[in-house]
Amino acid sequence: MTYCLAIRVDTGLVFCSDSRTHGGIDNVGTYSKMHRFGWSDQRHFCLLSAGNLATTQSVLRRLRQDIQRDQRISLRTVPSLDLAADYVGSIRAEVQQRHARRHSEPTDFTASFLLGGQIGSAPPGLRLIYPQGNAIHESSEHPFLQMGEVQYGKPLLDMVTSQWSLEAAARCALVSMDTTLQSNLSVGPPVELLILTGDRLDGGRHLRWGSEHLFLRELRSQWHQGLAAAIGRLPPFPWEESSLNREKTYKNAR
Questions:
Q1: Tens digits of per-residue pLDDT, 103-156?
Q2: Which domain of life does the protein's organism represent (predicted)?
Q3: Which of 51, 66, 68, 138 would you call most buried, defined as having the most Cβ atoms within 10 angstroms of its Cβ?
Q4: Half-sphere exposure of 168 (CA within 13 A, CB side)
């Protein structure tokens, strides 16, 4: 399985992905699921992939070939993010159908993609491309999109608003990823993070860590400490409150 997520805030985009792939309990591999395409001062895209590895690799190969061969339609030429999502979705459909025709036995060749980026002066955005070919975008009320094992990290992302800073959103994305890593063995390191500042079109900041990297360990430790402290500040039950009041009265009397 996999876990990929992206967040849009007013100042840019955050992407985060794991790197574990597997075709069964004894067939586990490590492949990056974060793929970057960019032309300085013109446009930048990040494409997160999930699903059948053969399909995702074939789609990525085709995307790069179209760029290298100066095809009329490519990530370098599409005029909008919506058309970029349509373009990726059409290639995905072609690849899935080709793989399905070659195999008589039932095999799941489906794949999903999470595309984000910015073209020129247009605002940055995100598109989640489903295996069925349809796509959805983020919104100010729902500024994040996810693929894969989404349930473990979603409650954290529900806190995010578009007014958050890029760095705060990035830390939330990493805690969401770490929570999923701890809860599901089908999601695994290395963890990749990309922060794209809006209007810069400079490729952003790309980071990659193993699960035991000092930064991630410190992030996990402080998050757990903060949770424990927050639970300690939650309202007491009625019987606890009475007990606390009696203890306070006794101490004051002394």
A1: 666 667 889 999 999 999 999 999 999 987 789 999 989 999 999 999 999 999
A2: Bacteria
A3: 51
A4: 12
